[in-house]
Structures are given as structure tokens and as C-alpha cells.
Amino acid sequence: MPELPEVEVVRTGLDSLIRNQRIREVQLHRPALRYPLPDGMAERLQGRTVEAVERRGKYLLFRLDADVLLAWHLGMTGQFHVLPAASPAGRHEHVVIVFDEGLTLRYRDARRFGYAGLFDARDWQQHPWFAGLGPEPLGGDFDGAYLLGRCRSRAAPVKQVLMDASVVVGVGNIYACEALFRAGIDPFRPARRLKAAQAASLAAAVRAVLTEAIAAGGSTISDFVRADGRPGYFRHAFRVYQRQGQPCVRCGAAVCRRMQAGRSTFYCRGCQH
DNA sequence: AAATGAACCTGTTTGC
DNA sequence: TGCAAACAGGTTCATT
Predict the structure, then answer these.
(1) Are A139 and A168 in contact, with CB atoms under 8 Å apart?
(2) What residue numbers bound the domain in which A51 lies?
């Protein structure tokens, strides 16, 4: 489901809803999501207090007291909801965290591609999930010069390099398509053939599209909802994603769709080179 | 080394 | 209407 904007919108909602809440009990309705849930997860979380909810790439990071860090990836269909304890259980609700003051945090994930891990807050970044991650696209380390450098040795299509989390985190299929359209770059162009000006404009387009999507509350296709249950509205701002056959907003020609490395790529043949 | 395809799952949409 | 195939926001693994 979620790319960086959706995870960031969830993070903001959760941080305001459960910060300072103390965990009374954890109910595990399944032993595993994509991977087995951490050993002793319920016991290790019991009694901890949420100090903040942060994000690294597409991972949500629950910072708890006693140097405990709970990291959670939403996969394709993962959702967090904050509800009163009395609310009925939803379908595919795999984990329920009950807080002292009558709120619950519930993880729901139809496809179970999501996963969670428990870490020592002092060295979590050494773990393989995080050690190889590239820079945050909205941070100071991501710009045209950096992107050009990472593209130089890559024969793969530029879209695949953009979606490589070791190059830059958080950019999935939707925002890769949208950023490449905004930058006027052909998704199939070998990354090593990018010019400096194109890399600069692509980096700027990535930042712009992610920033706008966060402001719109993310993109709801079918599953994504914020922690309070509201949808995101950025889907209405798509220029190419899921617009195959419809007129390009820039030149009017029909938007194309082609499979690329197993994913749909949406682009305008006339505007992207 | 790096690219492709399959795998992990279920739900929804599309096509015959 | 019914049924099967295609497809879906992500990541990792095995195979070229």
C-alpha cells in the first residue's frame, strides 16, 4: 500500500494519538506476518510507554522507554488504526496493542506482507533492514549530484534505480512514475545515460511530488487509510499513474502503460525522453 | 555485478 | 451471472 508519503501521514497521526500512552497488554492473533513476530514480543512491550513515533524510509519507528525500538513495515496492505478498546475486531486484524487509558492500536493487513521487529534503540541502525538504506529524499543528502553519482554505474532503467532503497528510500511505483513524468524523463532510459541537468530535475521532482502527496494526506488507491480512518487525496493529483489511455496533462496524447520488471509503468511517450 | 522472475498472501477488477 | 485471469502501494530470494 504505502510509499513514503503514506507512511509519513500514518506516522503523524499515530504520534499525536498514542504518544505518552503506556502499553497494558499486547494481543497477537497470529504468530507471523511476512516474518515471525519477534520472540516474546507481547512481554517485551508490556509496560512500555510510547515516547514518539518516527519514520525511516517506509518503516514506522515506535520509540519506547527503556531503549526499546519497535520497527514496523506496512508491506502492501498494512494499516494502523487507533480505536477505543470496546470497538469490535476487524477482519485481518493481527495485532492489538491495548493502552492503559482505554485506547487500542490495531494492525490490520490482508496480504500479510508487513513485518515488525524489536530492537535496542542504541544500535538499531546496524540491523540489515536499515544498514543499507540510502538517504531520505526530503533530507539534505539527496540532490541531483548525489543521484547522478548513483546512476553513473547503473545500466538498469532509471525507474528501477529510483525505486532502489539503497539509492534513495521511500519511492515506490506510484511516485517513481509521477516524478519521472514531472522531470520529463523516459522511465526506460538506462540510468547511466542521465545528464546532470536531468538528474537535478529528477531529484527536484521526487522532492516535490512527495511533499505535495504528504500535504494531501497520501494516495488512497483501495487500502490506504490514515490512523484516524480518513483517506488520502493525492490520487486526484496523479498525472500519469493509472491514467493509461487518458490524455497527457501536458501534450494531450494518450498516457501509456507498460510492464517493467513486473510492475506497471505509466508514462507519456511524447513528453518523456 | 546486475537484471529478471518468482515468491510471500488476499482482495478486487476485468474479460470471456 | 459465473468463473478465471490479471493485477495491486513492497521486499527478498533464486536464477539467469
Answers:
(1) no
(2) 4-131
Task: Report the amino acid identity of residue A167.
Answer: V
Please report, for the domain that includes residue A222, its CATH number: 1.10.8.50
Query: Which residues pair with residue A257 across a beta bridge?
Result: A266
Which residue in A22, A154, A257, A263 is the catalytic one? A263
Distance in Å from C11's C1' to A100's CA comes to 35
| Final residue in a domain of this structure, among A131, A158, A184 | A131
**DSSP bridge partners of A98:** A25, A104
Spatial contact of A14 and A82, defined as CB atoms under 8 Å apart: yes
> Closest nucleotide to residue A219 (Cα to C1')?
C9
> What residues contact A41, with CB distance under 8 A and at least 6 apart?
A26, A28, A116, A118
A72: in domain:
yes
The 10s digit of each residue's pLDDT in A114-123 is 999 999 999 9
The three three-digit cell numbers of residue A68, written as one number: 526499546
Report the footprint of strand C: residues with C-beta closer than 7 angstroms.
A 1-3, 6, 34, 57-58, 73, 75-77, 111, 113, 128-129, 163, 165, 172-174, 219-224, 259, 262-264
pLDDT in tens, A235-249: 888 999 999 999 999
